[in-house]
Specification:
The complex is a heterodimer.
Chain A lengths: L1 H4 L6 H11 L12 E9 L3 E8 L5 E7 L7 H15 L9 E6 L5 E6 L3 E3 H5 L2 H4 L22 H20 L12 E4 L4 E3 L4 H6 L3 H4 L5 H8 L4 H4 L6 H17 L10 H10 L14 H10 L11 H12 L9 H31 L3 H19 L2 H27 L3 H4 L3 H20 L1 H17 L3 H19 L4 H16 L3 H19 L4 H16 L3 H18 L5 H16 L3 H19 L4 H16 L3 H19 L4 H16 L3 H19 L4 H16 L3 H19 L4 H16 L3 H18 L6 H15 L3 H19 L4 H19 L20
Antiparallel strand pairs in A: 1-2, 2-3, 3-5, 4-5, 6-7, 7-8
Helix pairs in contact in A: 6-11, 6-14, 11-13, 13-14, 15-16, 15-17, 15-20, 16-17, 19-20, 20-21, 21-22, 22-23, 22-24, 23-24, 24-25, 25-26, 26-27, 27-28, 28-29, 28-30, 29-30, 30-31, 30-32, 31-32, 32-33, 32-34, 33-34, 34-35, 35-36, 36-37, 36-38, 37-38
Chain B lengths: L7 H9 L4 H21 L4 H21 L9 H20 L5 H12 L2 H24 L4 H12 L4 H8 L3 H26 L1
Helix pairs in contact in B: 1-2, 1-3, 2-3, 2-6, 3-4, 4-5, 6-9, 7-8, 7-9, 8-9
């Protein structure tokens, strides 16, 4: 049988069959682009760790592939990605750095991290039971060291532990909870320094709560994790920093004694019962040489109630450091300490409510004083619910003072939720998770608070770009508001507006329009047409209608909103500026350039007056105006505007900021129009490169830049390069956007123009005939693009000798353009020149029989 | 052969030198999945497969200490198969309580010429060659080519979909497929030749 099969690798069908059979079988090394030489380092219940070489940097890295992670939904995958993003931001010498993540070809999530030479703390401590203490690796120099060397002294163990606590504390400060602290997740390098790994990731990937872990079919693995878990984790409750503190306590106990604080060898239910109820003994009762203070620290971590523990790993680390420095530890004074905790617990719940009201107020730009009132009210609600009324009143004054301080502090933290300021922020995401829990509790008892919280959290998710999560909260808030207050209540209308704005961002314009319409109608009824809130609703509805290509209605609403806002809050209000700007853009998109220019000039003036020359929004208003000027052929003014704008943006935003590339993009188009093709080409190419790197290859704005680049190349007669790029852009757009997109149509037209240059007349005619029809359907009615295409079509028909059709197309397009853009516009000029050439040819060469294209010696006859 | 530090026969030679740790690691890397996979096909649990792997490596190291592997005496492929079968049958007998080495040897011989077992071994052997070859070509092709190949040729997704998802043209996808297949054939052919 060997003979018959010896050539399997030469027959490609057989080769592929072998390959397909091999796929997905356990044990195959996964293919991860960008990395090579994968070799298995260790294999656990959650996945396999490989050492590999990263091709780009040539460095050795460790890659963990999560084999058992079940990706029930995209949402979970996105959460994983976000988690990776969060952890990748952690920069600490005792935390294993995260470089990269993704999915393998087989769909398993993986992440790439720093490769630490050394061994797991579990491998070190496995010899503890035999030798009566932990050992440290010797300087053997092998990659994975065998446990060798002297047993770890109590002092040595505590020193190691302090570093681990500091690392975890650092992560806590950045809003990252580990959730799975155990010796196997602590690597010891050749200098005996610990490196904590797998922050939150593996656990999150398999579903968050321990409850889901029990579903895993590898009991051994599960037990390996369960032994280190906190009582609340075991119970499947929500987990916070204090759960990590508990696990750290188990690790400390184990490091010191080689044992667990309770029996973990029996059945699962027995182990769970032990974790939840068996009090840990003093480590000193197991190992001599452990002093009273270490006992206290360990037992403080191992308290069953989270409130009795250190409240974060940082607090724990500080106490451990105090111990090592010979100072008295804080955990010593038990009763005072617990009393304080108890007070703080009450306070913390109140603070939770404050946080949420605060986020709400950020979203709605409510003044600080109103916010403070709300905070106090929310606090009272929380207070009434949790402690008895008398006590709540007694503490009201003190709480209010504290609340104000916290408020100021939180304002700083929460402003980080605005991605335009700081990017997506770790702490806020985590805060929101906690808020989720709080909301669940509040829901039934305090619908008013719950509605506000829902709106707040939803808005914050929205500003983080997490639409699905935002949707959950905003929908719930809207439902509840309608039920609680009635559909016509202003609070229900506000909830409708919030949800509507989200739907716009999600591209669900139909739903958005319905919700916003309801909000507008309700506000007109309740507040009247002249109220700024009514205007805001109108303005939002206009955005949705624009998306639905209901331009006339959108325009009417913008105008209504603008009039109201100018009359009430004045031109200086951001809402007024927005409406002005948006209306200008809308008109521009419809090809109504003159009106657009006027509005955008007013908008720019107002921006400059109110915000100054350098403000990002002023700079935005400048480029918007420049684009309209460009379309109106006012090239000198546009160029001046764009050049100063580019300078300011480069300086303020940096050379690779998206806004900066927008200016370059506009400037390149302008240069091309002026015939400065080499400069234009260079600039477009740079924009394309930056955007491809920053936004990705198939992003709309990357494609726009590539398209322009190709047009410049065409101008420079570099047709092959141009065709390659245009084809790429067209194919991507067609696949992504379908035929009914102006972008797709535009790049198809550009491709056809290129064929025309190459003399591929037949293909050109066929394609143009289609494009003319498609373009009319796709562009708004007054847009000049279909006419420009039509004029070109006419010229090509003439070239092919189809004179009668040519004339019709040339005349129709010229007249259409003249009507819309005026006599002087370059589109009109081109159309006129084509028509004149056609007619001139007819007059000069009436008798000619052989049709030929313009620019050749014989010109086709026009038959009257 | 790029991507691998040693040729096949040189690796076996180095294995014979006592305590050549890096050679052992490399040997482990190359054949671990092969042995494990074969063990699975013989109905062993994953943990048992790891034990079999250890024992096979141990058996090889003992054998290598005594003599240098001589390619003319038969293919390494069948040699390794026999060693693996021997370890597996020894375990099976041990599990039943008694280990009569003669019985084990007999069972091994019978299994070695069993066509259905040969079929299983051949499949694992092919997978092994394929894995080795993939490692080589991973260093030679760009990630886009590799992904195109994976999606279009291996997973059988539509060419258009593949091209779109990777921002390639359809032609490029076809090219990736044929270039990688051609190269895989070459590399495996080379490996097989070298194996003797």
């Amino acid at each position: 049988m060997n003979n018959s099969s010896s050539d399997w690798y030469q027959d490609h069908t057989q080769l592929l069959d072998v390959m397909r059979r091999g796929r997905g079988r356990l044990g195959g090394v996964p293919v991860i682009p960008g990395y090579q030489d994968l070799r298995e380092l260790r294999r656990g219940g959650q996945g396999v760790v490989y050492v590999a070489r990263q091709l780009s940097t040539r460095r050795e890295v460790a890659i963990k592939v999560l084999l058992d992670a079940r990706w029930a939904s995209d949402r979970r995958l996105r959460r994983f990605e976000r988690e990776v993003e969060l952890v990748a931001n952690l920069q600490h010498p005792n935390i294993v750095k995260l470089f990269d993540s993704g999915l393998t070809d087989e769909g398993h999530p993986f992440y790439v991290m720093e490769y630490v030479r050394g061994c797991g703390l579990d491998e070190l401590s496995s010899s503890v039971a035999e030798r009566g203490g932990c050992v440290l690796p010797g300087e053997a120099g092998s990659e994975r060291m065998s446990p060798a060397g002297a047993p770890l002294s109590v002092q040595g163990a505590v020193q190691l532990f302090a570093k681990v606590c500091e690392a975890v504390g650092y992560a806590h400060q950045h809003g990252v909870i580990h959730r799975d602290i155990k010796p196997g997740n602590i690597l010891i390098d050749l200098n005996c320094d610990p490196h904590v790994l797998d922050f939150g990731l593996a656990k999150r990937a398999v579903g968050g709560a321990m409850r889901e872990l029990t579903e895993l079919s590898v009991p051994g693995e599960f037990m390996g994790t369960v032994a280190w878990a906190s009582p609340e984790q075991i119970a499947g409750e929500s987990v916070d920093m204090r759960s990590d503190v508990y696990s750290l306590g188990v690790v400390l106990f184990y490091l010191l004694t080689g044992r667990f604080p309770y029996a973990v060898g029996g059945s699962l239910s027995q182990v769970i019962a032990n974790i939840q109820s068996v009090e840990a003994p003093r480590p000193s009762s197991v190992r001599s040489g452990v002093d009273d203070e270490i006992d206290t620290i360990a037992l403080r971590c191992l308290a069953k109630e989270p409130d009795r523990r250190y409240q974060s790993a940082g607090e724990l680390a500080r106490d451990v450091r105090r111990y090592l420095a010979g100072e008295p530890i804080l955990a010593k004074s038990e009763s005072a300490w617990y009393g304080m905790r108890k007070k703080l617990r009450r306070y913390r719940l109140a603070v939770g409510a404050v946080v949420l009201t605060l986020v709400a107020s950020l979203a709605y730009a409510v003044s600080v004083s109103v916010l403070y009132q709300r905070a106090v009210r929310a606090e009272e609600l929380a207070g009434r619910r949790l402690v008895d009324a008398q006590e709540a009143r007694d503490e009201a004054n003190a709480e209010a003072t504290k609340a104000r301080a916290v408020l100021e502090q939180l304002k700083g933290i929460l402003s980080a939720a605005r991605p335009e300021r700081h990017g997506r922020d770790v702490r806020v995401a985590d805060l929101l998770d906690e808020a989720d829990v709080l909301i669940g509790e509040t829901w039934r008892e305090q619908p008013e608070v719950a509605i506000e919280l829902g709106a707040t959290i939803g808005q914050t998710y929205l500003s983080l770009g997490l639409y699905e999560e935002a949707g959950e909260h905003l929908e719930r808030a809207y439902e509840l508001a309608r039920k609680t207050y009635g559909a016509d209540d202003l609070r229900a209308l506000e909830a409708a507006q919030n949800l509507g704005v989200l739907r716009i961002r999600q591209g669900r314009a139909e739903e958005a329009a319905e919700l916003l319409n309801r909000c507008l109608a309700g506000r007109r009824e309740a507040l009247g047409g002249d109220d700024p809130d009514t205007a805001a609703a109108a303005s939002n509805l206009a955005v949705a209608l624009k998306r639905l290509r209901r331009f006339d209605e959108a325009e009417a609403l913008y105008r209504e909103a603008l009039a109201t806002l100018e009359g009430s809050v004045g031109i200086g209000d951001p809402r007024t500026l927005d409406a002005l700007h948006n209306l200008g853009v809308l008109l521009g998109q419809q090809g109504r350039l003159e009106e657009s220019e006027e509005l955008l000039r007013r908008s720019l003036d107002a921006h400059r007056d109110l915000l100054g020359l350098d403000h990002p929004e002023t700079l935005m208003a400048e480029t918007t105006l420049a684009e309209t000027l460009l379309a109106r052929d006012k090239l000198d003014e546009a160029e001046g505007l764009l050049r100063t704008n580019l300078e300011r943006r480069r300086e303020r935003l940096g050379p690779e900021h998206f806004d900066t590339t927008t200016t370059m993009y506009d400037l390149a188009e302008l240069l091309r129009l002026r015939g400065k093709l080499a400069e234009a080409c260079e600039m477009s190419a740079e924009v394309a490169r930056i955007r491809e790197r920053v936004l990705g290859a198939d992003h709309r704005h990357t494609l726009l830049a590539k398209n322009d680049w190709a047009l410049s190349l065409m101008g420079l007669e570099r047709l092959e390069e141009a065709e390659r790029i245009l084809r790429e852009v067209y194919e991507t757009r067609l696949a992504k956007l379908g035929r009914d997109s102006t972008d797709t149509q535009a790049s198809r037209y550009n491709l056809v123009m290129l064929w025309a240059r190459q003399g591929r007349t037949e293909e050109v005619l066929e394609a143009l005939a289609e494009i003319v029809v498609d373009a009319r359907a796709v562009y708004p009615p007054e847009h000049p693009a279909p006419l420009v295409i039509q004029s070109h079509y006419g010229e090509q028909l003439w070239k092919a000798g189809r004179v009668a059709e040519a004339e019709q197309q040339l005349v129709e397009s010229y007249e259409g353009l003249r009507e819309r853009l005026g006599d002087d516009h370059r589109y009109t000029r081109t159309a006129r020149e084509r028509l004149e050439a056609f007619r001139g040819a007819g007059e000069e060469q009436v008798d000619s029989e052989e049709p030929a294209g313009p620019g050749t010696t014989t010109k086709p006859a026009r038959r009257p | 052969m790029s991507g691998q530090s040693t040729t096949y026969t040189a690796l076996l030679g180095r294995l014979a030198e006592s305590d050549n740790a890096s050679a052992w690691r490399e040997f482990h890397e190359r054949y671990a999945d092969l042995i494990r996979g074969f063990g699975r096909r013989q109905g062993l649990q994953p943990a048992d497969c790891d034990d079999v792997l250890q024992e096979v490596l141990l058996a090889l190291s003992q054998a290598m200490g005594k003599f240098r592997y001589d390619p003319s005496k038969g293919k390494f492929r069948s040699y390794l198969k026999t060693v693996a079968l021997h370890v597996i049958y020894k375990r099976r007998h041990a599990a039943r309580g008694q280990v009569d080495m003669e019985e084990v040897d007999q069972a091994t011989r019978a299994a070695a010429s069993d066509p259905s077992i040969e079929l299983q071994w051949e499949e694992e052997w092919r997978q092994y060659h394929l894995r080795q070859a993939m490692r080589v070509i991973e260093g030679e092709f760009g990630s886009q080519d590799l992904q195109a190949f994976q999606r279009y040729a291996v997973e059988g997704r539509a060419v258009g979909e593949t091209a779109e998802s990777l921002d390639m043209s359809v032609d490029q996808v076809y090219q990736s497929k044929s270039r990688i297949l051609k190269r895989l054939s070459e590399v495996i052919e080379h490996q097989v030749e070298e194996e003797g």
